[in-house]
Amino acid sequence: MKKIITIAAALSFFASGYAQKRVCGTTQHEQWLQQQNPKRVEQRKAYEQALANFIKSASTNKANKTQSIIQIPLVVHMVYSSATDSVADAQIFSQIKILNDDYTRQNADTANTPGPFKAAASAPMVQYCWAQRDPNGNPTTGIERRKSTTTSWSTDDKVKATATGGLDAWDPTRYFNIWVCALQSPLLGYGEFPTGSASNTYGFVAGYTCFGDTLKAQAPFNGGRTATHEIGHCFNLLHIWGDDNGACTGDDQCADTPNQASENYNCPTYPLTDACTTTAPGVMFMNYMDYVDDACMNMFTADQSLRMVAIVNNAPYNSLVSSNACTPVALVPGDAGVLSISSPSGSSCGGTVTPKLVLKDWGNDSLKKANINYVIDNGTVQTYSWTGALAPLQTATVTLAGLNPTVGTHTCTIYTSIPNGAVDGNHTNDTMRVTFSILGGSGQALPFTEGFEGTTFPPTGWAINNPDGTDTWTKTTSAYKTGAASIVMDNYTNSHIGQVDDIISPMLDLTSISNPSLAFQFAYKLYTNPTSNPNYSDTLQVLISTDCGATYSSIYKKYNTNLATTTPTWANSAFTPTASQWRQEVVSLSSYSAATGAFIKFRNISDYENFLFIDDINITSSTGINAQSAAQGINIYPNPSADGKFLVDIKKDEHSVQKLSVYDVLGNKVFEIKDNIPSGTYDMNLNNLSSGTYLVEIVKDNTTLFNKIIINK
Length: 713
Known about the structure:
The protein is an alpha+beta fold. It has 4 domains: 7-236 and 294-322, Collagenase (Catalytic Domain) (3-Layer(aba) Sandwich), CATH 3.40.390; 336-438, Sandwich (Immunoglobulin-like); 444-621, Jelly Rolls; 625-711, Immunoglobulin-like. It is 13% helix and 30% strand. The strands form 9 sheets. Strands 1, 3, 4, 5, 6 and 7 form a 6-stranded mixed beta sheet that branches. Helix 3 packs across helix 7 (302-311). Mean pLDDT is 90; it is low at 1-18 and 62-66.
């Protein structure tokens, strides 16, 4: 039977005097990732399927056998707690030579590959180059260091985040990230399998005693092959034995690796047979994806190489090949540029906007003056003559004179010119643009309706706030309650947990009708089973501002099963609602009825769960709400109630009320009767509730009705 070597089990080997055995943490890390993200198994499967056509095509393409060398930028994040676990640059540099040799099959020990396996031996033809420019465009050695208070790291990715004592990854679509640190003994390293979406934790973590082949590298893992093995996982290689617990049914997806029962350790003698491959030449224990000592590893196969090549030829990591990170930063005289723009941004009311930027000296000489030009849309260009003293690669924050754009969405363009009185030496970094919205003006009279049927998105007067610049609210025609369109937030493929995205209404005059009330349709289904994982849910929140967006108050917030509009409330699949899977929500705005200028903000807070749809936003008088239920033979009285006690009168007919629920102004359910309620008069005791306005939701004949009630104690 195959032995599963966990970290705890490996420790017991040492305590008993056994020689050290290789401990790869990739499988353990993958299990941890799946716990954090229930979709990960599905995503890996989908990615494997997406790569299948490339692999099939390339395997029959003879030209692929002689492919050109692929170059990938590499950055090493050295995280240490003392001089003991900090390695010198020389040890780090030694590792890249080993990788370049192993991934092009230029390693000196290819002679040790047994004759029967030489025909299968191959390499992905990957060369790693040290990054020479950091994400901000500054020169770098490709190595960054941080002293941390953490003395030992595990497979939970904390070493990959500055916030938890480690170092953040550089853009994984431009750099291949490696972290070197003191890993919990006896763990040597771990990689991260790729999926179809770029991950900010993608890369490889190495223990400092098994990185490179010099200085602090310790036998028997001082040949740099831990990196060769773990990066193989990052490029989608599985363990050669298929992780099947000795069943001989596991598959590493490579036809040219012999069936193997379990991992091998130390340095076996060739030929080695086992229960899965019982005759010579036996198992391929010298493969980089086995567990033997560094000195006994020496080959990838052609099929393994093809799987790795597929990763760097398909999204999201194909951009590594075209990255300019290994191109040296060429500093030229007189090179000024705009590094960032902090204002204008987002949404604000009418009036003056004050542009603010970070000016950078990208040149190799001191920047003493430059013109900073700025313009809103296609208006008149304004110019500010900046003077100062910036050393090469240094920055300065510059505030410009205010502008007065009109209501709507605008683009602000800022660019530099004439640095030090001469033509700019490099125009590629001169210009930056930002989009912003002016929400001001007089409030639009009610009633207000928006069904997102127009060709313009966002609709006129609406604004979108997308702080992280990734996925946000979009228009869709794939689902709708009425008409032919709605808006949707993609929480299904968007893995940025906690990301906030807002879509904000035009300014509205709530005084233009009596008792204003907001109604909207939405549809949502959880991805994760709320019984087993009750903390996983996206959130829908509605907020209102009456001070031109300076502050917002929450008037509605739902998540988990309260947000779901379907039965069952979850499914491990992407959600597209049918017409019957929508629910209308009604939120009283009576507390804000004196506002002549109000903004309504619909906010999505992503938890990487599922698609959320909104349609048919209406702001009208709530007077008609009670009339709606009364017309259907349902009356609730006395209303207002002085003590919170009401009578619900259901007129006699052939149908019963299926459900009655009561919500507060934040959308929280405070009372519910789920069972069918026949005709008659019933007590509804809400005396435990505070004074205020509440909404009664009544489901009758599969139709949802609403009634507003007031408690005045």
